[in-house]
Write a structure and sequence with these properties.
By secondary structure, the protein is mainly alpha-helical. Helices cover 68% and strands 6% of the residues. Strands 1-2 form a two-stranded antiparallel ribbon.
């Protein structure tokens, strides 16, 4: 009886994993990851003041939470191309963080 319950739980977990992978694939096929990178790496410089406009820090944290949630489901070769771009964006964002953006 307990083995049957364990088997059913494992089957549900596998179905859930397949569903998550299908949703992630659909997101990617619709250009979702390209848009993530576009927003994540957004940087504009005001020609008059030379100040940079970057993604708001809170939005970056939300996006990082989303990425970390699906990380284990992503193709490893895709991760190898995605993560360096995200790391560069994070480093640039920290370089230009303002005092009022730092949580206290």
């Amino acid at each position: 009886m307990e083995e049957d319950q364990q088997g059913a739980e494992n089957e549900e977990e596998v179905k859930y994993s397949h569903l998550i992978v299908e949703l992630i694939n659909a997101f990617g096929e619709l250009g979702g990851f390209n848009e993530w990178l576009r927003v994540f790496t957004y940087c504009a410089q005001d020609p008059k003041t030379n100040e940079y406009t970057l993604i708001p820090f809170k939005m970056m944290l939300i996006m990082l939470t989303n990425i970390s949630t699906i990380y284990n489901y992503l193709n490893k070769s895709f991760v190898a191309t995605l993560m360096p771009k995200i790391k560069d964006a994070i480093a640039r964002r920290y370089k230009y963080i303002t005092n009022k953006e730092i949580p206290r």
